[in-house]
What we know:
By secondary structure, the chain is of the alpha/beta class. The protein has a single domain (3-44, 65-414), classed as 3-Layer(aba) Sandwich (Rossmann fold). 49% of the residues lie in helices and 10% in strands. The chain contains 18 helices and seven strands. The protein has helices at residues 16-29, 56-69, 82-85, 89-96, 100-113, 115-126, 148-151, 155-167, 179-182, 186-203, 236-242, 251-256, 281-287, 290-300, 303-322, 335-349, 364-383, 389-400; strands spanning 3-10, 33-38, 78-81, 137-142, 169-178, 207-212, 327-329. A seven-stranded parallel β-sheet has the order 3-2-4-1-5-6-7, sandwiched between helices. β2 (33-38), α2 (56-69) and β3 form a beta-alpha-beta unit. The radius of gyration is 25 Å and the shape is globular.
Amino acid sequence: xxxxxxxxxxxxxxxxxxxxxxxxxxxxxxxxxxxxxxxxxxxxxxxxxxxxxxxxxxxxxxxxxxxxxxxxxxxxxxxxxxxxxxxxxxxxxxxxxxxxxxxxxxxxxxxxxxxxxxxxxxxxxxxxxxxxxxxxxxxxxxxxxxxxxxxxxxxxxxxxxxxxxxxxxxxxxxxxxxxxxxxxxxxxxxxxxxxxxxxxxxxxxxxxxxxxxxxxxxxxxxxxxxxxxxxxxxxxxxxxxxxxxxxxxxxxxxxxxxxxxxxxxxxxxxxxxxxxxxxxxxxxxxxxxxxxxxxxxxxxxxxxxxxxxxxxxxxxxxxxxxxxxxxxxxxxxxxxxxxxxxxxxxxxxxxxxxxxxxxxxxxxxxxxxxxxxxxxxxxxxxxxxxxxxxxxxxxxxxxxxxxxxxxxxxxxxxx
Length: 415
């Protein structure tokens, strides 16, 4: 039986676990049998410490309850958790005296070496071995985020290739980038673009790159900047006067990733200096001071800055030469945003052409309800499956408000 799924990667803190939780809930609302496979050995519950007043029997009972309930730290419902069934990072670090990065690499290589056992457990719990007509499960693989696993090692790619081969799995690589961190900082976004391009080639899977945590951009935009007296200003006059976004360009530029060289002029700018309310009158006078401008000019003419700019210029060339990169904005708490990402993923793995068999096995009332959900979802795919310019403008206004972008920096005027 053909299975479908997503393998979720991204830097630590980019929201992979939250994404898997929200995506599982959304897919189940669509009538899909969505399950999460936790392949992150660091997603584990710390071992409980023995306290006074707890005897051996009570500790044993608590351990049995924890084993029955599974990993209580994970927000989603798992069908397989490597921390419980295979290996955990904490045990490796304690027994082999390895650091977190080295221990995680050891854990992933251990999982690859024992992948046959992992596949056996998956097949048993999915009912694939004994029942060829088992329900079609939709699998979400939550992976660790250390860059060493994709940049310096092919272990994740080999695990994904074997999963595809032995489970007949139509897999899509979903790569998350923290929008709240990378979009305001030009150098971080260029680095994230390079990492995404490298991972797309090393994974050898259809890839969907996602700008996660879009809802947090409003916290650094002019729309949510508080005045000194603690109040928030929502008037249009504030936007017109000093409502600037920390992003140098609009959202469409960062989703399409065309001509990244335009970011080079903003390498030495401080994003927080251009947020409404973050710069006082004294700061503005200081920034306009001729001596300060001369010091900035000397910095721009220094050997370090020239090499720094040249390095990022070559990185932009590398990303542009491949031309593989594009992003989808996502707020996991916004159902419409999640639906558009799901539509793109279903196009990549072919699920868009599949009729869910679970709908045919339900009762008449439930079947009618789920069919309505399926019809709505199919209509959304056909009618509005791409993030067009109008949709991006709506998303930008929703999360950033009526802000202006840093296309003009006062420091650049004195170059």
